[in-house]
Amino acid sequence: MTLLVISPDYASHLLPLATLATAWQRAGERVVVATGSATAALVAGFGFEHSDLPLGRGSNPGVIRAEQQPAGEDDALRGFFAATYRGMVETLRFQAEARRNDLLWEPVDRAQAVLKVVEQVRPDRIVVDHLAFSARLALIAGAVPHVDVVLGHPSALPVGDEVYGYPTAWPAAFRPAESELAALHLVCRTVRDEFTAEWNAALHILAPNAAAATDAFTEHGDLVLYNYPAALHDLTRGPLPAPHAFLGSAVRTETVPADVRSWLETGDQPFAYVSFGSFLSTRADVLSTVIRALRRSGLRVALATGAAQDLPPVPDTWLVRPYLPQTALLDQASVAVTHAGNNSVTEALTAGVPMLALPFSTDQFAGAAAIETTGVGVALDPNAATADDIAAAVQRALECAPAAQAIGEQLRRTPGRDLAHTLTHDHLSKVAERGQRS
User: Fold this and answer.
1) Closest-CA residue to 39 (of 69, 12, 21, 19)
2) Quick one: pLDDT at residue 108?
3) CA distance 121 to 32
4) Which pLDDT belongs to residue 277?
5) Residue range 258-302, pLDDT digits in tens
6) What Pfam families does the record point to (predicted)?
7) What percent of the chain has pLDDT over 90?
8) For the chain, what percentages of helix, strand and coil (3-state, to nearest 5) are there?
9) 3-class SS at 369?
10) Are 159 and 239 in contact (CB under 8 A)?
11) CB atoms < 10 A from the CB of 73, how many?
């Protein structure tokens, strides 16, 4: 049996997909990962075959820097970072408008490249990132059965009257004006319609007889798997696609460097793990405020600085590196300070670690709202929170440990990778049987 995994060339997307694929690897099956060259080393580290398949202009092997992006993408990234300083609505508006150019990059050419990879690999199963739109366009056009993995908040696949890019929820600390929200909603609807027209134009070239989409953002595969804990999902959202399942998380096993292992083994003082992921670590101003708050907390700190520069001094007892093995540190952390990216949220909860969420963009607002609503942490506006606010919020987050630990016990009981393997095998086998009968 051969599994084909299709991922954008971003570490934050590839890592959970590759983690799911380790279940196939453990079963002795062949795994091929189709992605770009920037993450090829990560693919090799998992022991998988790599098929070169760029799906967009940009890439991110772990920590993203604007100066390392191709012309045009560098300015877009700088524009995004600048928008995060202006707040939730401005950031979401910038991201919505950017989707006019970045979600369907050379769609017909990339779709044809995807179908060529499928022809070469001849997989028995295909797992694709939901946000790899040109890849899913190809598979839908070619009527190729596949499993669609939603790696972000579940609202990344809109249901009911939801509009892609418009948050389904946000934390209490954010108080946008109704007029701003109305303007954002209009932009998101306009971009949705433009995106759908572009999708349908490409689909008509690839498969002239295929049915056009009414909202391309709601298109999905034969089986939808949410890399998200069911305990955090808002049950008031509209009916989810059938069939679907919540995987909980896709927590990878990481190699722990000797210096990090030594730090973990010395001292029994509780510690906070701090990371803003591969993108938002550029917000050194917010990281600096977090540092000032935690210096007075009495906690040790493991801090992943990413691309941040000119941070204030820290105690000698802290562990500070540009990159840290996140899952290994979360296994022993008492609290996590995070941007509320989906990987960070699901990995922290799997370890039973409560969170202070400081969301900046995309679905981080909905993720932070879920943290707040379910009582597994606290959320603040990163542009408004002072060191005093953060210090107090960390203490409140520590009190959420019992709720986080209860969810963690559930998630560890059935690892997402094992569930994905079973569900994918069973469902696509049924799809194949139906195809043979017809």
Assistant:
1) 12
2) 97
3) 8
4) 87
5) 999 999 998 778 999 999 987 888 999 999 999 999 999 989 999
6) UDPGT
7) 83
8) 50, 15, 40
9) helix
10) yes
11) 17
- Number of alpha carbons in the 13 Å side-chain half-sphere of residue 189: 8
Report the alpha-carbon angle 401-330-130, nearest 5.
100
Identify the bridge partners of residue 129 per DSSP, sorted by sequence position.
Answer: 149
Q: Which residues contact 265 (CB under 8 A, 6 or more apart)?
A: none
Give CA–CA dist 24/62, Å, rounded.
24
Average pLDDT over residues 358-371: 96
Amino acid at 19: T
The structural domains of the chain, ordered by start, are: 2-249+415-437 (3.40.50.2000), 258-413 (3.40.50.2000)
Structure-model confidence comparison of residues 373 and 77, the more confident one: 373
The span from the CA of 237 to the CA of 227, in Å, is 17
Three-state secondary structure call for residue 385: coil
Query: Which of 128, 109, 117 has its CA nearest to residue 13?
Result: 128
pLDDT tens-digit profile of 239-265?
999 899 999 999 988 889 999 999 999
What pLDDT is recorded for position 437?
47
What's the token pair of residue 49?
């075959």
Single-letter amino acid code for the residue at 206 = L
Question: Given a cut of 70, is residue 212 above it in pLDDT?
Answer: yes
Report how far residue 405's alpha carbon sits from residue 374's, in angstroms, rounded to the nearest whole number.
Answer: 12
Rounded to an integer, what distance in angstroms lies between the CA atom of residue 289 and that of residue 389?
10
Cα separation, 9 vs 41, in Å, equals 11
Strand ranges, E, within 62-192? 125-129, 147-150
Bridge-partner residues for 2, per DSSP? 30
Distance CA 100, CA 98 (A): 5
| Lowest-pLDDT range of 67-76, 107-116, 156-165, 326-335 | 67-76
Cα separation of 155 and 166, whole Å?
9
Q: pLDDT at position 426, please? A: 78
* Token digits of residue 172: 């209490």
Residues in the chain: 438
Position 233 pLDDT exceeds 60? yes
Residue 73's pLDDT is 60
| CA gyration radius, the chain | 21
